Amino acid sequence: MADRIIRIATRQSPLALWQAEHVAARLQHAFPGLQTELVKMVTRGDKILDAPLAKVGGKGLFVKELEQGMLEGTADIAVHSMKDVPVEFPEGLHLAVILDREDPTDAFVSNKYRSLAELPADARIGTSSLRRQCQIKEKFPNAEILSLRGNVNTRLAKLDAGEYDAIILASAGLKRLGMGERITAQLQPTESLPAMGQGAIGIECRVDDAEIHEYLKVLHDEETSIRVGAERAMNARLNGGCQVPIAGFAEIKGERLFMRGLVGSPDGSLLYRAEAESSLADFEALGKSVAEDLLAQGADRILRELYQ
Ligand SMILES: NCc1[nH]cc(CCC(=O)O)c1CC(=O)O
């Protein structure tokens, strides 16, 4: 088994490369002698930087080209941020493992204010995520939401140039890139409920590649798989992608799984929230029930409007 070379498809942002190299290092640690090779690719999501993600549309914006590589045989596995992975896969590919989760919170980053609570009512806030936008706008209806695309360094540079009073981005990305000290405040799930899969890395591969599955098994993290499994089940029921204001976050406490979900209108005027708990084994049903609750409250109206 140790003679194989595993070709790892990855995007080229510093965070994507960190994640791919992390996977390579962990595989090599578990299987000394195993060779790995990064196959660097550019996705549509990387190319379209001038439009807010919400307007670009389409699912799998950051994964399609990587999937094509695996289907064509130029790569064996693809390393993804679970947040960017659609609930459905192309024929012949699937999610093999989910790794342990980094900090799942959203980070409040500012050079002027120490916390969300200190922000003035008309603050200029950088984010291109409708999920973050609707939660900020609920608390700060007069805040100005400004587009914030690009990799983590680009986003911080724009903040440092004075374009925003504060920006919101994933804590996990900052921590992985060694910039955890830039996090001014970690937003609690009650302040900014994270996206499905935020902070977790997943690996996709060809369904029929039995040997690869043997290698990947060592990376599996049971708790993260359960949590992200519940979150993805919620998104699947809501038909959600990265361009809709949906949040889903599950936590394990003892033998129980607690889940919170949210669907909001982009302007923050209407937010539906739901929460429920279950045994760990029932994670899929839990995610689905939180979605059903949100739909029963009226979330389907928001979603239908956005998909038009
Ligand atoms: N949608 C882009 C994306 N996909 C994953 C991360 C961060 C890392 C993670 O959540 O694992 C980000 C950037 C962000 O949300 O600020």
TrEMBL record:
Function: Tetrapolymerization of the monopyrrole PBG into the hydroxymethylbilane pre-uroporphyrinogen in several discrete steps.
Cofactor binding: number and manner: Binds 1 dipyrromethane group covalently.
Occurrences of domain Porphobilinogen deaminase N-terminal (ranges): 6-213
UniProt protein name: Porphobilinogen deaminase
Modified residues (S-(dipyrrolylmethanemethyl)cysteine): 242
Gene Ontology MF term list: hydroxymethylbilane synthase activity
Provenance organism: Methylomonas albis
Gene coding for it: hemC
Domain annotation Porphobilinogen deaminase C-terminal: ranges: 227-295
